[in-house]
Write a structure and sequence with these properties.
alpha/beta, Rossmann fold, 2 domains, six-stranded mixed β-sheet, 10 strands
């Protein structure tokens, strides 16, 4: 009888805990849905430039998300992926390996749900990003760049938490068919433009999740977008470009990218090569110059990954012009420039890294509108 009663009590306790968890999950989903309603879409700007008659370049402004970057979408998807997969509960510690922006956004969502958050970041991550992680209540652990994955996994085991693992789960967590993903959003915004079907959509690759989402969606909507191609811009100290050319998934590099948020020292699982049509290797000097040039063109500061995207877009536009073609190119504003005051906007930092941006300014003058 005692054994039976004990079993009944245990079952009752388990049922109560399960009920509490389900109620918490309902509340968590409602909070995330409310955030989605407040910030689900972003603006699409036409870049004011000259020298490219008949070719328009558009910027999808992901910097206006509540956490200031494209990674807000990814963080929301990763959290939902963990919630719906039963990996995140009311007391789960969330853990991520990140160069900064994803961790900032995940820290925001962790605070929204009342959960502890630990970001494992490489040494040298910008102080501005570290400050934003902690401002939302997260904790940052700095390690050597090559140790972020193993340290995140170790912390998951130590805390009994959940490693969100953006580099593996980015392409799995994002609904590439619809749900207002970035591809669906930007293509709907293009519908009334002079060239509504873009010739190119240009993105950088950090996890690979954005290019995977866009590439898959274009194939899903191939009856309309059969001619739209995906170009991924890759910075220095990243292996994606070589991996794309050789289809070698084992490639690694000894250095981390200086263009935070894009470029990786290894081929990440979320980088889906077959949905990418082309890659361009862009120098860090060109990316940073274009980032600063955009400030003069728009009056706003953007991060270096935006400079990378726009420089690659301008190269493609020149090719189209040389071929006598008109059309449109869409790329992304990834984040704002406030996070890079001590790095890419700092001349001393550039000098210490041997980055000379002066030659590229002369090239970019060709794209300034005539008075």
């Amino acid at each position: 009888m005692t054994h039976t009663m004990s079993g009944i009590l245990d079952s009752h306790t388990v049922a109560t805990r399960n009920s509490e968890t389900r109620l918490w999950l309902i509340d968590a989903m409602q909070r995330i849905e409310a955030d989605y309603n407040r910030s689900s879409d972003t603006h699409l700007h036409k870049l004011d430039i000259g020298g490219l008659d008949g070719i328009n370049i558009y910027l999808k402004d992901e910097a206006i998300h509540p956490t200031g970057s494209l990674k807000h979408r990814l963080a929301r998807s990763l959290i939902l992926y963990g919630l719906c997969g039963g990996r995140i509960g009311p007391k789960t510690t969330l853990i991520e390996a990140s160069s900064g922006s994803t961790a900032v956004s995940e820290s925001y969502f962790a605070k929204l749900l009342g959960l502890p958050f630990i970001a494992v970041v490489p040494k040298g991550t910008s102080p501005e990003k570290l400050s934003e992680i902690t401002r939302y209540g997260g904790r940052a652990v700095e390690v050597e760049p090559g140790e972020i994955y193993t340290e995140a996994a170790r912390l998951e085991a130590e805390t009994g938490g959940y490693y969100l693992d953006q580099f593996t789960n980015a392409e799995r967590a994002t609904d590439w068919r619809s749900n207002n993903n970035i591809a669906e959003s930007l293509l709907q915004q293009m519908e009334l433009e002079p060239h509504p079907v873009p010739d190119w959509i240009v993105v950088g690759a950090g996890t690979g999740g954005t290019s995977a989402t866009i590439g898959r969606y274009l194939r899903y909507r191939s009856e309309t977008y059969a001619t739209t191609r995906v170009c991924v811009a890759d910075p220095e100290n990243s292996v994606f470009f070589e991996g794309f050319k050789t289809d070698d998934e084992t490639l690694t590099a000894c250095c981390r990218s200086r263009i935070e948020g894009v470029g990786r020292p290894r081929m990440e699982p979320s980088f889906i090569r077959p949905v990418i049509d082309r890659m361009l290797k862009i120098s860090d000097a060109a990316s940073i110059t274009t980032m600063r040039w955009l400030k003069d063109r728009t009056g706003r500061r953007f991060g270096p990954s935006t400079g990378l995207n726009v420089y690659a877009s301008l190269k493609l536009a020149l090719e189209m012009q040389h071929e006598g073609r008109e059309g449109s190119i869409v790329t992304l504003i990834c984040d704002n420039g406030n996070r890079y005051e001590d790095s890419c906007y700092n001349d001393e930092w550039l000098a210490s890294h041997g980055i000379d941006i002066s030659p590229h300014f002369n090239c970019l003058k060709a794209f300034e509108p005539k008075p």
